[in-house]
Design brief:
3-stranded antiparallel beta sheet, alpha+beta, elongated, 37% helix, 5-stranded antiparallel beta sheet, single chain, 27% strand
Length: 172
């Protein structure tokens, strides 16, 4: 990469020194323009060599969308598998689903996740510590098709808890 930069600079300097290299000035301008383009991209590649490609990101997202984690899915609902017990939640028992976001006290980051409310219990799943939450979102949107993606975010308390309603069962 450094050799390419040196050769390009040398061609650029020689072109500028002997300005009318060719009889046509358009060819000289094209050579100067190409030298600048090569220099810009070479320097960018030299300073930022570890830029991630799209392919590893796409493979990771495909893996996350297929990973069950602590959940096991059936036609009627899903199981939450924990160390000692397993709990079953039916799709038709889900009353509402909220996205929540809470600022953490000692950093600028926010803790976020999903809150699922049934008739009996409320469940909270954090994005950073709940394995399989991406596939859970996919399954929820598949089995509960009336998601409200334009719902406003509401600040619940003085600590900065924000909630956005994603789904609410129509009780009519």
């Amino acid at each position: 990469m450094k050799k390419l930069i040196i050769v390009t600079c040398l061609v650029l300097v020689l072109t500028l020194y002997n300005y009318p290299i060719f009889d046509d000035k358009k060819i000289t301008f094209a050579v100067i323009f190409l030298c600048f383009v090569v220099l810009i991209f070479s320097v960018a590649k030299l300073y930022y060599p570890d830029e991630k490609d799209y392919d590893p990101f796409e493979r990771e997202m495909d893996r996350l969308h297929q990973y069950d984690g602590i959940f096991q899915y059936t036609e009627k609902g899903f199981y939450i598998k924990e160390k000692t017990n397993s709990e079953f939640i039916k799709w038709d028992e889900i009353i509402s689903i909220y996205f929540f976001s809470v600022p953490t006290p000692f950093s600028d980051r926010k803790q976020s996740g999903l809150e699922i409310i049934t008739g009996n219990k409320s469940y909270e799943f954090d994005y950073t510590i709940t394995p399989g939450i991406v596939k859970l979102e996919d399954q929820l949107s598949l089995h509960l098709p009336t998601w409200d993606m334009d719902s406003p975010t509401v600040i619940i308390n003085n600590f900065g808890l924000e909630k956005t309603k994603l789904y609410e069962k129509n009780l009519l």
